[in-house]
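Repro:
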Amino acid sequence: MVEEAQLERWFCDEVLPLEASLTRYLRRNWRTAEQVMDIRQDIYEAALNGGRQDLPANTAGFVFTIARNILINRSKLERIVQFEQFADLESLDQGVDLSATDRHLDARDALRRAQDGIDRLPPRCREVVRLRKIEGLTAREAAARMGVGVDTIERQLVLGIRAMADTMLGGTGRIRRGADNRLGKARSR
């Protein structure tokens, strides 16, 4: 247990100086700006309660971990469906929800299939998908980094995503360049 005076000193000297960066973090990661100050107060309360047990060696890491966990918990609470909205609870499909283990295994399998799809792409196409979808660059930023035109980035992205989807759905994952043009010409006739 930490003495109250030591806890107050720690909070004033190490936690409160993080307020500006903590507020920026919350504004970036929470969709309702009006709730940011309330969330920050919840973080301070949790930090104080945790600090009463033992003061952390890395205060910033401790506070931002609390912040992340509170944001996750609040997000989960907002997704809970109010049962009062349903007139007949008996009509709900009870077999839809998978156990946490099943969801984890399904997610791992989907991730493996996505990685397999990325690995099968040609190098340029793979790089475009990585830059746009994994690193989150805009088409213009990806084009500048690769030294190609924006239209090339957009075309390669479409081809890559289609090939990845084909792989994930059990197909060969081959890029089909001319199929779209022939299909478009056939439809216009």
